Structures are given as structure tokens and as C-alpha cells.
Amino acid sequence: MKKSWIPNIFTFTNLGCGVLSILSTFEHKYINACIFIIIAALVDRYDGRIARHLDVSSEIGKQLDSLADLVSFGVSPAILTYVCFNLSSIGPYGILGYVLVLLFPICGAFRLARYNITDFNGVFTGVPITIAGSVMTILILIHTQTNMHPIIPILFMILLSYLMVSTVSLKKR
């Protein structure tokens, strides 16, 4: 195996965890869905570091990472929130639920695209999708133990969507 594939294995693990989270959500296994997102976040933390360490960073690796992040931290948490909190019942014909489930990954996709076309100087513009998706995941985990009111994740989803596309600056740790 070429060493250039090692970071891609981490990226594909991230993507796989995002897909498994979605499948777990459809089976109403919300804790499992959350665990898959958490695993995705852990492996996402290392794919770029490994690529830089092995000196195999590439444009395709950067794009694959963004696609995996969109699934694992944009689409998956949005679907998880939509199903777990029954957002299909919000608004006439569930239209507000549809808007919410679309808003989060769309804002995440914009955030990732903006990141991919700018030179990174150690400061993020907008909240990274990994953080936004992880916050939504933590809310779901809390909900499984406390049965929180649906307005809380709805407000967080709107706020985090805005923060992903905002120009707020966050220094990378």
C-alpha cells in the first residue's frame, strides 16, 4: 500500500461513520448514531496530521476530507436531529422541519467550500462543521438522558448554521 493512502483510510473511516450514523438514525438507535459521529470526529482529527507527517498532503485528500466532513458533521447530525426530535411535525406539512434539516448541511457545505478556496493561516473563518456537528451530537446524547424540549436543538441548529457561514474568527488549537 502506498503511504499516500494512509490518511485517506482515515478520511474514508470518517465518511463510513457518517453513513453508519445515518443508518442508525433510521433504525432509531440514536446513541449508536451519536457514537458513529464521535468516532468520525476522532479520526477526522488525524487524517490531515498524518498526511502532513508523511508528507503526502494532496488536493484530492483535502476534497475527500471535506466531502466526508459534510456527510459526518452536516448531513448526519441534521438527519439525526430531524428524526430524534420529530421535526417533520413542525409547520404546515412539516415544511419548517424540512427547512431546518436542509439549512444545517447547506451552511456546512458553504463553510467547507469557503475553507477549501482560501489559504489557511491558522484562524478559521466561521465555526468549523466538525464543531457544529459535534455540538448537535452532544445535544442528542443529552436528550437521550433528559428528554429535552425540541426548541433547544432547533435554536442550536439555527445558531450553528449561522455561525458556520459567519465571519467569526476561531484560532486553531
Shape: globular
CA gyration radius, whole angstroms: 16 Å
> Sheet with the most strands?
2 strands, antiparallel
Q: What is the fourth-level CATH superfamily?
A: CDP-alcohol phosphotransferase transmembrane (TM) domain
| Gap between N and C termini | 32 Å
How many domain units?
A: 1
- Our estimate of the beta-strand percent is under 5%
Oligomer: single chain
The top-level CATH class is Mainly Alpha
User: How many strands appear in the DSSP assignment?
Assistant: 2
Judged by helices, strands and strand pairing, the structural class is: mainly alpha
- What is the overall pLDDT average? 94
CATH architecture: Up-down Bundle
Q: Give me the strand/helix succession.
A: HHHHEHHE
Enzyme class: transferase
InterPro entries: CDP-alcohol_PTase-I, CDP-diaglyc--ser_O-PTrfase, CDP-OH_P_trans, CDP-OH_PTrfase_TM_dom, CDP_ALCOHOL_P_TRANSF_CS
Keywords: Lipid biosynthesis, Lipid metabolism, Membrane, Phospholipid biosynthesis, Phospholipid metabolism, Transferase, Transmembrane, Transmembrane helix
Main location: membrane
Protein described:
The protein has 173 residues and is mainly alpha-helical. The protein has one domain (5-171): Four Helix Bundle (Hemerythrin (Met), subunit A) (Up-down Bundle), CATH 1.20.120. The protein is 74% helix and 3% strand. It is globular. The model has no long low-confidence stretch (mean pLDDT 94). Its EC number is 2.7.8.8. Keywords: Lipid biosynthesis, Lipid metabolism, Membrane, Phospholipid biosynthesis, Phospholipid metabolism, Transferase, Transmembrane, Transmembrane helix. The chain crosses the membrane at residues 5-24, 95-113, 120-142, 148-170. It is an enzyme of class 2 (transferase).
